[in-house]
Amino acid sequence: MSENKAPHVAKFVYDFTEGNKDLKDLLGGKGANLAEMTNLGLPVPPGFTITTEACKGYLENGEEPAALRDEVSAHLDALEARMGKKLGQADDPLLVSVRSGAKFSMPGMMDTVLNIGLSDKSVQGLAKQAGDERFAWDSYRRLIQMFGKTVLGVEGDLFEEALEKAKDAKKVKVDTDLEAADLKKLVTAFKKIVKKEAGRDFPQDPREQMDLAIKAVFESWNGDRAKLYRRQERIPHDLGTAVNICSMVFGNLGPDSGTGVAFTRDPASGHQGVYGDYLQNAQGEDVVAGIRNTVPLAELERIDKKSYDQLMQIMETLENHYKDLCDIEFTIERGQLWMLQTRVGKRTAGAAFRIATQLVDQGLIDETEALQRVTGAQLAQLMFPRFDEQAKVEQVGRGIAASPGAAVGKAVFDSYTAVKWSRSGEKVILVRRETNPDDLDGMIAAEGILTSRGGKTSHAAVVARGMGKTCVCGAEELEVDTKRRRMTVPGGHVVEEGDVISIDGSTGKVYLGEVPVVPSPVVEYFEGRMHPGADDADELVEAVHRMMAFADRKRRLRVRANADNAEDALRARRFGAQGIGLCRTEHMFLGERREMVEKLILADTGEEREAALTELLPLQKKDFVELFEAMDGLPVTVRLLDPPLHEFLPDITELSVRVALAESRQEPHENDLRLLQAVHRLHEQNPMLGLRGVRLGLVIPGLFAMQVRAIAEAAAERKNAKGDPRAEIMIPLVGTVQELEIVREEADRVIAEVQAATGTELKLAIGTMIELPRAALTAGQIAEAAEFFSFGTNDLTQTVWGFSRDDVEASFFTAYLEKGIFGVSPFETIDKDGVGSLVKLAAEAGRRTRPDLKLGVCGEHGGDPESVHFFHEVGLDYVSCSPFRIPVARLEAGRAATQSTGSDHR
């Protein structure tokens, strides 16, 4: 069997001794890494993994593959022989956990059941074997609770309410204060809940427990929260989950036992040190659920130095082996350390950049691999504003800085309200005691998450970091009352639902009201106002600086800016733009110049039209002179007028009212009346598919000629001033080569006239936008008259899909995303199968006609990380995007050039 490939034989179960970390497709991330740790000789409880292929078979056919039960039985027999005890036997039971484990980490989104094998009989044997009756009954109540909720579909709150009643009756606050007799009563109460709600008794047969739990884990792959999380994280829906059957080790055996989560580096900052949480006398779910506040991992050295030292050695071994930040789950059973899981850990954006550069400095990875450890989406997060430290604020609490960012919004206390208010345009902060997987909808909708319980390894923290969402956890002094929808802060002040709060995920501070924000240090770096230095912010800037330098050295794609004026052009240049890929000239026709455009539209004669164009010419030229100066030495692609002319006229309703009022008052209104007539004349049912782009240039004599003359004269003036203008003229919305030929003939004539008049030689490339399906399909013909193509993927997406973007995003896109028709909006990330196929076809056809044809993209996809990779693959020369997206595009272009199939850091 190849080390890196799954075998082709039909085998559905693998012992932990058989797999390795490269079999994630087959064994899932958890199973592959349990096998890897076993191979490394680390203390992993024995067990086996049911493959993702078995899950896919079950989901496709509604029943498990025929061979699966026999394979599971054979591996269970081997496990029992190794452990010297049988599953659920009365006197000395073997207990197992049944845990999900997909290829990509989906924290809390799928199901887990612990303590499988306990029954009314075996609980007695466990108590005797452990010499601890309380522990045995605690484990039994946990099994019934988890099994009831996960496998039998019983509402989890019913078990929680019964647990709270038991604590109230005993007058204690934490479950560890309940004694064996209390837990026996709780088991009885839990079994009654199962009987009432599920319509059946809790199963006493341990094999039935295990088989039902396996099926429940399979089915949880298609649970609502799992599907939502996959859409959010863009994880394919057809992977399935593996199931891990692991012999139980117990952290709830008393004060010399416990469970914890550790990171080899801080997932929030990236700094090296001892990071994690530990909880004595607890099982693993207690830590991530946040139901009891943990102690910092460093406390374990005082509690159990032997286990602490062993854990530190194992953490070092794992980080060096995986060459990355590792996230580790462990249990200590009466002084014996056991490793339950490891994975490459999720991290914040800042931590990702710091860790990548640290690992390069340590010689563990090279620059190429470092680029695969960071993403453009993470860089974009680092460019978000932060709170102004000089502002007057009212701090009301402080928790654990779990995921950085500056989030402001109205406090809401449940996910339903968070989603509802967010859809109404409100910014919200989701406030909970602790979150659970059912809160995923609200976490996605919220600007940030605040919890009063839990630490850096709680569900809220892990999921928020994965989504790049601001999060503060474990703010203990805040009393959260979800039923009354309020939060009480120190001093007695009450924050009601709807009150504005601010949370700082970088410091853990919580404020009343809205705190003003200031620019990110990363933006200040790109603007040239901050340089790498020594303090924390500068350390991050240094890491970003180095990764950008790596990317710029590696990338093939050039990155240009969409910019329409000198100010935007200069900013884009500071951000690293290598030219302008789209200058929209329509923006130059607005403001005080609108009256001149109105004159052009209202012109009844050739003389009137020529007068209007003559008035516009020097203003257009001035704009281009400033733009060419700002981008001196770099290409500037100027798109001739594109939108329908009615966009330059007043609103039809507003104009109608003005005319009606003037008529009723018998006031002069001839000009408004002419404008109204023009608006009616130019009205179109589908203006984006009407008289616009090249069509304007063909039906309004002199319009494009004026613009070409302004470009040429500005270029000549700049060149005569010893500058280096590199203007390119782009004809929009071409659908046939004949349109381009006619406009080009006129443009060449105007350029020749300007050259003759100024005595200046001009080299102005003329090309077109490919933004219509017909243009893409006839690109070979169009390339005969075009020196470059720029793909206008916004319009190309609209015309390929038959969508009007302004309408559909507000009407049915939400439903399409929720139903999984879209994984992501096709206006956000390019539709590779449809729109992308046309881009690829047009690029290939164009270059067959003209091998030196320059290819770029100027739609919004030019700044989208995933789309940049596609444009690299199809051989474009450059992408163009808004100034603030330029660093993102530069980084992703570098990543695309160094992409390796072996890296995956979701």
From TrEMBL:
Positions of the Pyruvate phosphate dikinase AMP/ATP-binding domain: 65-293, 301-350
Catalyses which reaction(s): pyruvate + phosphate + ATP = phosphoenolpyruvate + AMP + diphosphate + H(+)
Keyword Repeat found: no
Signal peptide: none
Entry EC number(s): 2.7.9.1
Listed Gene3D superfamilies: 1.20.80.30, ATP-grasp fold, A domain (3.30.1490.20), ATP-grasp fold, B domain (3.30.470.20), Phosphoenolpyruvate-binding domains (3.20.20.60), Phosphohistidine domain (3.50.30.10), Pyruvate Phosphate Dikinase, domain 2 (1.10.189.10)
Sorted UniProt keywords: ATP-binding, Kinase, Magnesium, Metal-binding, Nucleotide-binding, Pyruvate, Transferase
Xref: Pfam families: PEP-utilizers, PEP-utilizers_C, PPDK_N
Domain PEP-utilising enzyme C-terminal positions: 542-894
Cofactor: Mg(2+)
Domain named PEP-utilising enzyme mobile: residues: 426-508
Keyword Ligase attributed: no
Source taxon at top rank: Bacteria
Family to which this protein belongs: Belongs to the PEP-utilizing enzyme family.
Name of the featured protein: Pyruvate, phosphate dikinase
Protein species of origin: Streptomyces graminearus
Name of the gene this protein is made from: ppdK
